[in-house]
Task: inverse folding
């Protein structure tokens, strides 16, 4: 996998074996690890006043993205993205 870029679209398989497309909204390096803020493309494309659910994925290696399962790591990444957005 090449470097993850804003606008990249990936397909995930959910717990029900259904394919879901996600779009990268932002990327950030925290403590030497790359993270991506993503949302479901279906939610992004809908024109409504409902907020889009954003979640974070961690780049485990050049071929794998994974959900952050550690609460402390999630909080650190969330705060870093929020801080970057405010700048």
Result:
């Amino acid at each position: 996998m090449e470097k993850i870029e804003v606008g990249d679209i990936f397909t995930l398989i959910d717990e029900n074996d259904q394919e879901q497309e996600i779009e990268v909204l932002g990327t950030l390096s925290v403590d030497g690890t790359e993270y991506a803020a993503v949302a479901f493309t279906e939610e992004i494309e809908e024109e409504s006043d409902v907020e889009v659910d954003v979640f974070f994925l961690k780049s485990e290696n050049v071929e794998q993205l994974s959900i952050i399962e550690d609460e402390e790591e999630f909080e650190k990444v969330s705060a870093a993205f929020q801080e970057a957005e405010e700048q």
Observations:
- The radius of gyration is 13 Å.
- The first helix runs from residue 41 to 45.
